[in-house]
Every structure is written in structure tokens, then in C-alpha cells.
Write a structure and sequence with these properties.
With about 220 residues, the chain is an all-alpha fold. Helices cover about 70% and strands about 5% of the residues.
Length: about 220
């Protein structure tokens, strides 16, 4: 193996995962500064990166260390992008609404914990869950990446009907926390489905920008 100057790997096959993490951290910054829409857009970008990072990584022939590194950073990126960032958004909504109760502290904490448990379990069972082709056919529990689409949809709907974002997000994250760790099999989406989901996300992004122009959110 070629001797590296720095620890870690920095090839094209990990770039999308690194971009996902950077986008999520920027999103957390936006969330804590009250810019919820920009925070959600960052989460959607992280979701886009997560959709295709595995396919990009598969283009490179990797040794066992590189394969394990890819699995580890993917789980860590998901924890930041789809575990920590949504919790930061809910916490910020609670702060702006003047709520300092259980929903503003307990629900974000339980959400992060549920995402953490799910991703740790997913990583630990990765080898056992693969089929004969070395691919995972099913997820157990709701994939964390799903919030990159669910949260923008709920955000857009709430702004259209003028519903309380804090209350709706609190209920939604509480439910999603349970779904993360619920032992139920969900078929992994194929490439066609992933493309449709990405196009759906693009449509939602356009709607969010349109709503923002009208309602100044």
C-alpha cells in the first residue's frame, strides 16, 4: 500500500461522503442562526450525496481497509446529516417559538439517540445483510436518509397551510425516532426509484424557494 502523508483516504470515492458532512455542518450553523430553510436545503444536498456515494465508491477497486473505512464514514456522515441536523432544526424552532419544555430538549435528544442506534446496528450487520452479489437487499427500520425528503415536504406543507413548524416537527421526529429502530424490513430502492426521489427533492426545493419568495420564510 502506498504510504500516505495524512491518515484517512482522499480519493474520488470518498468525496461525496465528505461533501455530505460539510453540508450538514453548514446546515447546523444555519439552523442555530434561525435560517431553517437554508438548513433544510443543506440536508437535501447531503441526501443527494448519500444517494450516489456508494455507486461512486463502487467504481474503485478497494482493499479491506478502504472498504471498512467507507462503511464507517458513511454511517458517521449519516449521523451528522440526518441525525444531528434535524435535531438542531427542531431545537432552533423551539427556541424561536419560545418553548423550553420537554419537546425542545427530550425529543431532539431521543431522535439523535435513535439515529445513532440504527446506524451502529446497520454498520455492525452490514456483512450479514448482504446477498450473494455483496449488496444489501433490505433495510431494517426506516433509513435515516429518508428525512432528507420527508422534512422538506413537511416544511413546505406547513408553510402553505400556516401550521406551527415546531409542533409538527416535534411530532414528526418523535414518530421517526421509533421508525428508525422498529424491526421491520423495507426494500432498498433501485436506481430508478432513487432518481425519482432526487427529482422529487428538486421539485420540493423549487416549491420551497417559491414559498420563500411569497411568505418571506
Amino acid at each position: 500500500m502506498k504510504k500516505l502523508l495524512f491518515i484517512g483516504f482522499f480519493g474520488y470515492w470518498v468525496i461525496l461522503t465528505y461533501l455530505s458532512i460539510l453540508s450538514a455542518v453548514i446546515g447546523i450553523y444555519f439552523a442555530f442562526n434561525g435560517n431553517i430553510k437554508s438548513a433544510i436545503i443543506c440536508m437535501m444536498f447531503s441526501g443527494l450525496c448519500d444517494t450516489f456515494d456508494g455507486r461512486v465508491a463502487s467504481l474503485k477497486k478497494r482493499n479491506n481497509i478502504q472498504l471498512n473505512f467507507g462503511v464507517q464514514i458513511d454511517a458517521m456522515a449519516d449521523l451528522i446529516s440526518f441525525g444531528t441536523l434535524p435535531a438542531a432544526i427542531l431545537y432552533s424552532l423551539g427556541q424561536s417559538s419560545g418553548s423550553f419544555g420537554i419537546a425542545n430538549a427530550i425529543i431532539p435528544s431521543m431522535y439523535v439517540l435513535a439515529a445513532f442506534i440504527r446506524l451502529a446496528y446497520f454498520t455492525a450487520t452490514e456483512a450479514e445483510s448482504q446477498d450473494d452479489n455483496g449488496k444489501r437487499a433490505y433495510f431494517e427500520g426506516l433509513p435515516t436518509t429518508s428525512v432528507a425528503l420527508l422534512i422538506p415536504i413537511v416544511f413546505s406543507v406547513c408553510n402553505v397551510i400556516q401550521a406551527s413548524l415546531f409542533i409538527v416537527f416535534s411530532v414528526m421526529l418523535a414518530i421517526i425516532s421509533v421508525l428508525f429502530v422498529l424491526k421491520v424490513k423495507i426494500r432498498k430502492p433501485r436506481m430508478r426509484t432513487q432518481i425519482i426521489l432526487c427529482l422529487t427533492g428538486l421539485a420540493i426545493l423549487i416549491i420551497m424557494q417559491f414559498i420563500g419568495g411569497i411568505l418571506n420564510v
